[in-house]
């Protein structure tokens, strides 16, 4: 059995679904951020796999994933900073406690 | 083909056996006397104090933050460095602009005291 | 490679970085009031620079970047919004404990992200612009240190915004996989129907729909709008939404084929209809002015996205024209809310009682802006709605115009409710509501522009027509 595009896409889908599940199921803001990272990495797997199997002559997919990595780092940096700031206010990172504004 | 794998698997088995054997033999041979010293988390070195689950100062976090951002930005430097010969002067200038912007960010972090231990 | 096409973005990037450096050099004791004026003048210069980009219609960097009249018009919408917001925030930043100068720099960076989005002709460029804008907004929304509601809004926006970008990105990766390219016009030629394309399109609509707060992706907006500092709420409500529209129109009209079974238009028109209804109906019981404006902005997104249904230049013209009108009217309303909040420390609509006696200028601006949003002739909001729904009706689709009309009538109710409090009731106490200079300029501008464009929409309409034609 050779590993082909399908396998990578299934891996990507599983990662993405796990990330989405984490976002909805976890109560800790940090865990939710991890879930978001998982979703972005699923996209990276997709992009690289497509680059390799669909359009190997160009490197668009790889370039795209480099940008995704960089943006994800910035996003998480801001996210953790916000978690710290809210932790200073409430002594909690549980998203259920964030109820000063009604959803 | 199979021969090469055989060699590797031999290595693997030996590598697995040695640590198991060492643990097992030392269990058999070693005298079993417990002293309060031995019950410590770290037998030698500084005595441990307090709980493992302590809070870290947010200053650690600030360092980590600055580190992560700059670390990841260097991702752009790798493709640039690999293709440096073909890209020419233009890309050289471009990368300097990129780094200049990063330096402004670093300057900001420094000036705002992100690198000071408070 | 033609660098002159990037001139306005370079100016904006230089302005933002310059402000950051200035903040490092300037003494800490300085109150940063001057930063607001520098930013406003700098943005004015960028606005002037964009006028020279009309009529270029070129793309560069291997089709990554396009400057057509459409993108230039959209950029001007964002810049106008940014200038108004900066002016209205000059006095607001003095209430911030720290980081006053960076506030303006961040607004400029968010603007830069929007400008990149408007000119993006490629999925990677779209993504980078979108994230530059969104991540900057995460920070800006949580800017009021010490106010727990602000940081709570920030983290909610961060979580929901990141999830929506991740979903959008997954859709983009599928599009790349189907075509092997990320350039939008090239995508159109290579896409054919397949089940996975439907998934990609649904994900794109979800991702973009979040940015422009289409129902059912609108749940975040009332919370975030309420918690964020009011000038930022204004910027978020107008400019980030307009930027979402700018990208969405380009991707959907120029990048996705509409033949055979790929009927994304059905989905969009369905969402447009629901958005118009839900946004207006839920706005009625709101007691907080920022929440009310949030739901009203959801409804406005519904009107605007209806313009996409015509799939031709007049519809896009309607969207463009309406974006500009919407920016001016909404920034006017939010500026009034900022000033009232500052003087009376309240966002509750009932506390606006007697504003007509306290500050007739504020009360009349708020009334005019709200009525314009409701689409009462002869104000400019009516003209914008007219352009949009006429374009759709010309294509033989009548129901959006009908729904839009009925919903506008409903919206008059909750908009007039605010006016009623302001003009009918007496003030509860005699605290004054001061109007500082820069904010007064914003308020007078939005008042005048809203009225004048309603009576005399000609020049802006022509500009919008030209811009819309450059897309097709």
UniProtKB/TrEMBL annotation, chain A:
Membrane-crossing segments per the record: 6-24, 31-50, 62-84
Where it sits in the cell: the answer is: Cell membrane; Membrane
Catalysed reactions, semicolon-separated: a quinone + NADH + 5 H(+)(in) = a quinol + NAD(+) + 4 H(+)(out)
How does the protein associate with the membrane? Answer: Multi-pass membrane protein
Q: Which family does it belong to?
A: Belongs to the complex I subunit 4L family.
Which proteins does it associate with, and in what oligomeric form? NDH-1 is composed of 14 different subunits. Subunits NuoA, H, J, K, L, M, N constitute the membrane sector of the complex.
The name this protein carries in UniProt is: NADH-quinone oxidoreductase subunit K
Automatic annotation (TrEMBL), chain B:
Question: Which EC numbers characterise this protein's activity in its record?
Answer: 7.1.1.-
Gene3D superfamilies membership: NADH:ubiquinone/plastoquinone oxidoreductase, chain 3 (1.20.58.1610)
Q: Where in the cell is it found?
A: Cell membrane; Membrane
The record's annotation in Pfam families points to: Oxidored_q4
Q: Which GO terms describe its molecular function?
A: NADH dehydrogenase (quinone) (non-electrogenic) activity; NADH dehydrogenase (ubiquinone) activity; quinone binding
Entry superkingdom: Bacteria
Q: Name one GO cellular component term.
A: NADH dehydrogenase complex
Q: Which family does it belong to?
A: Belongs to the complex I subunit 3 family.
Q: What does this protein do?
A: NDH-1 shuttles electrons from NADH, via FMN and iron-sulfur (Fe-S) centers, to quinones in the respiratory chain. The immediate electron acceptor for the enzyme in this species is believed to be a menaquinone. Couples the redox reaction to proton translocation (for every two electrons transferred, four hydrogen ions are translocated across the cytoplasmic membrane), and thus conserves the redox energy in a proton gradient.
Q: What is this protein called?
A: NADH-quinone oxidoreductase subunit A
Automatic annotation (TrEMBL), chain C:
Task: Please classify the protein's predominant subcellular localization into one broad category.
Answer: membrane
> What positions does the domain NADH:quinone oxidoreductase/Mrp antiporter transmembrane occupy?
120-411
Q: Where in the cell is it found?
A: Cell membrane; Endomembrane system; Membrane
Reactions this protein catalyses: a quinone + NADH + 5 H(+)(in) = a quinol + NAD(+) + 4 H(+)(out)
Name the GO cellular-component terms. endomembrane system; plasma membrane
Instruction: Give the UniProt keywords, A-Z.
Output: Cell membrane, Membrane, NAD, Quinone, Translocase, Transmembrane, Transmembrane helix, Transport
The record ties this protein, via InterPro entries, to: NADH-Q_OxRdtase_suN/2, ND/Mrp_TM
**Which superkingdom?**
Bacteria
Q: Which residues cross the membrane?
A: 6-25, 37-56, 76-96, 103-120, 126-145, 157-176, 196-220, 232-252, 264-285, 292-313, 319-340, 361-384, 396-416, 437-456
* Catalytic activity, EC: 7.1.1.-
Q: Name one GO molecular function term.
A: NADH dehydrogenase (ubiquinone) activity
Matching Pfam families: Proton_antipo_M (PF00361)
Set out the biological process GO terms recorded for this chain's protein: ATP synthesis coupled electron transport
Please report the record's description of how this protein sits within the membrane. Multi-pass membrane protein
The broad enzyme category this protein falls into is: translocase
Provide the function of this protein.
NDH-1 shuttles electrons from NADH, via FMN and iron-sulfur (Fe-S) centers, to quinones in the respiratory chain. The immediate electron acceptor for the enzyme in this species is believed to be a menaquinone. Couples the redox reaction to proton translocation (for every two electrons transferred, four hydrogen ions are translocated across the cytoplasmic membrane), and thus conserves the redox energy in a proton gradient.
Oligomer and partners: NDH-1 is composed of 14 different subunits. Subunits NuoA, H, J, K, L, M, N constitute the membrane sector of the complex.
Record-linked NCBIfam families: NDH_I_N
Q: Tell me its family.
A: Belongs to the complex I subunit 2 family.
State the protein's name. Answer: NADH-quinone oxidoreductase subunit N
According to its UniProt entry, this protein's organism is Heliophilum fasciatum
Q: What is the lineage of its organism?
A: Bacteria, Bacillati, Bacillota, Clostridia, Eubacteriales
Please state the gene responsible for encoding this protein.
Answer: nuoN
């Amino acid at each position: 059995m050779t590993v082909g595009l399908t396998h990578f896409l299934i891996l990507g889908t599983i990662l993405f679904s796990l990330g989405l599940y984490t976002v909805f199921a976890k109560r800790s803001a940090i865990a939710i951020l991890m879930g978001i990272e998982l979703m972005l990495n699923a996209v990276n797997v997709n992009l690289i796999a497509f680059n390799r199997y669909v359009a190997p002559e160009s490197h668009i997919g790889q370039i795209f994933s480099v940008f995704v990595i960089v943006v994800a780092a910035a996003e998480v940096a801001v996210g953790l900073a916000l978690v710290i700031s809210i932790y200073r206010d409430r002594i909690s990172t549980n998203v259920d406690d964030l109820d000063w504004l009604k959803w | 083909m199979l021969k090469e794998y055989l060699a590797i698997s031999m290595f693997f088995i030996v590598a697995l056996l040695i640590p198991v054997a060492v643990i097992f033999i030392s269990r058999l041979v070693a005298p079993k006397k417990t002293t309060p010293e031995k019950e410590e988390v770290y037998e030698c070195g500084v005595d441990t104090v307090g709980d493992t689950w302590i809070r870290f100062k947010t200053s650690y976090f600030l360092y980590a933050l600055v580190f992560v951002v700059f670390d990841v930005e260097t991702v752009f430097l790798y493709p640039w460095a690999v293709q440096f010969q073909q890209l020419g002067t233009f890309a050289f200038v471009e990368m300097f602009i990129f780094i200049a912007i990063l330096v402004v960010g670093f300057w900001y972090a420094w000036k705002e005291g992100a690198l000071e231990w408070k | 490679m033609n660098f002159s096409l990037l001139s306005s973005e370079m100016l904006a990037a230089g302005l933002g970085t310059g402000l950051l450096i200035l903040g490092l050099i300037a003494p800490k004791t300085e109150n940063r009031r001057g930063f607001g004026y520098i930013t406003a003048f700098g943005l004015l210069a960028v606005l002037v620079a964009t006028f020279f980009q009309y009529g270029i219609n070129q793309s560069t960097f291997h089709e990554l970047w396009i400057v057509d009249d459409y993108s230039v018009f959209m950029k001007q919408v964002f810049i106008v919004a940014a200038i108004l917001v900066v002016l209205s925030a000059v006095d607001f930043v003095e209430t911030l404990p720290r980081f006053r100068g960076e506030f303006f720099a961040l607004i400029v960076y968010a603007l830069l992200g929007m400008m990149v989005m408007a000119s993006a002709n490629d999925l990677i460029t779209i993504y980078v612009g979108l994230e530059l804008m969104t991540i900057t907004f995460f920070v800006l929304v949580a800017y009021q240190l010490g106010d727990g509601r602000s940081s709570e809004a920030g983290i909610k926006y961060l979580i929901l915004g990141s999830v929506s970008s991740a979903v959008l990105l997954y859709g983009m990766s599928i599009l790349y996989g189907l075509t092997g390219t990320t350039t939008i016009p090239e995508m159109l030629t290579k896409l054919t129907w397949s089940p996975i394309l439907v998934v990609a399109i649904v994900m794109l609509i979800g991702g973009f729909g979040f940015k422009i707060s289409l129902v059912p992706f609108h749940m975040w907006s009332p919370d975030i709008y309420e918690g964020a500092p009011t000038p930022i709420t204004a910027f978020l409500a107008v400019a980030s939404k307009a930027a979402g529209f700018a990208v969405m129109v380009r991707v959907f009209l120029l990048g996705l084929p509409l033949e055979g079974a790929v009927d994304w238009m059905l989905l969009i028109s369905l969402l447009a209809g629901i958005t118009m209804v839900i946004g207006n109906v839920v706005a009625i019981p709101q007691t907080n002015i920022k929440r009310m404006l949030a739901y009203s902005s959801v409804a406005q997104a519904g009107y605007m996205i209806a313009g996409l249904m015509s799939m031709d230049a007049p519809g896009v013209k309607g969207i463009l024209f309406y974006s500009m009108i919407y920016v001016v009217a909404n920034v006017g309303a939010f500026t009034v809310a900022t000033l009232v909040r500052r003087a009376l420390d309240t966002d509750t609509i009932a506390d606006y009682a007697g504003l007509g006696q306290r500050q007739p200028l504020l009360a009349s601006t708020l009334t005019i802006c709200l009525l314009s949003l409701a689409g009462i002739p002869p104000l400019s909001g009516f003209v914008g709605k007219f352009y949009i729904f006429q374009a759709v009706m010309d294509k033989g689709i009548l129901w959006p115009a009908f729904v839009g009309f009925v919903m506008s009538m409903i919206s008059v109710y909750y908009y007039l409710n605010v006016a009623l409090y302001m003009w009918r009731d007496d003030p509860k106490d005699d605290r004054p509501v001061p109007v500082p200079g820069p904010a007064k300029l914003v308020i007078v501008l939005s008042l005048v522009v809203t009225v004048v464009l309603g009576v005399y929409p000609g020049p802006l309409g022509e500009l919008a027509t030209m811009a819309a034609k450059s897309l097709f």
